[in-house]
Amino acid sequence: MKIVIPGGTGQVGTILNRALSAAGHEVVVLTRRPAHEREVEWDGRTWGPWVEEIDGSDVVINLAGRSVSCRYTPANLRDMMDSRVHSTEIVGEAIAAADRPPGVWLQMSTATVYAHRFDAPNDEATGVIGGSEPDVPDYWSYSVEIARAWERAQEVADTPHTRKIALRSAMVMSPDRGGVFDVLLRLARLGLGGPVAGGGQYVSWIHDRDFVRAVEFLIERDDLRGPVNLAAPRPLPQRAFMRELRSAWGVPVGLPATRAMAELGAFALRTDTELLLKSRRVVPGRLLAEGFDFAYADWPEAAGDLVRRRRGDRDRAGAEGALVSGSS
Length: 328
Description:
This protein is α/β, with parallel strands linked by helices. The protein is built from 11 helices and 11 strands. The strands form 3 sheets. Strands 3-2-1-4-5-6-10 form a 7-stranded parallel beta sheet, sandwiched between helices. Helix 3 runs parallel beside helix 4 (140-155).
């Protein structure tokens, strides 16, 4: 198959590109700064030669949008909104204009669309959409509105010959450098991976290999459309999540952090505490109902696999460095 991935140079795009290319598919990445073979320039807003890649493709997986790893200032929130909505609109226009439109359009969304809650899990059928929860910062509702506008832009696109799926993804855990697992593991290794603000808020996640398998499953199942939660079936409180991560690496202690300490840390890292404090209790109702089998349904096993792969990468890098040093 020919698979086009707008915005495919980030962590999730890299995971998909690597796996889908290895499976024998032709993968084309649309990016602002093409630097490798099969990367094509686009700006996420305007028409250009990139539309020729959409025409005749089998699958489009749109991942474009400003990273959420930033301070949630009004300017950054507006940039998140505009980059997601405009890129989705232009992809929809390209699909609508194609002589040979793709069979399926997978559009990245986010589990952040659901409410901050502790009492029950959010699936696609009964989950509570966020935006009006009491006792949370006002700007959290704008994050929900971004997610809803992102999905609306795909929903209203006039693409009658292309099946559309919104991927309400939890955090994708991969041993690659620079991703969310890398950040969390660094905190754990420094002894800082303890409970944050009590640690009762739920963490929803998905192992990178299950994420790829779920995408492949949704491509193959031509009867599925609409929002789909991409999350492991058993989210867990943040305190337990970090405890299992520390255990996998072999770190006995993780210092706790108050909400105020989390605010200071997030400011220093130029990110936002919503990523730490919002309770994302999201479960994959539709995937489970359709028979998808998670290879990593529980976090202890997933964390163990990710740590082994991370250590394997580190050992290989060390061995290659020793070979280079010995041959010089």
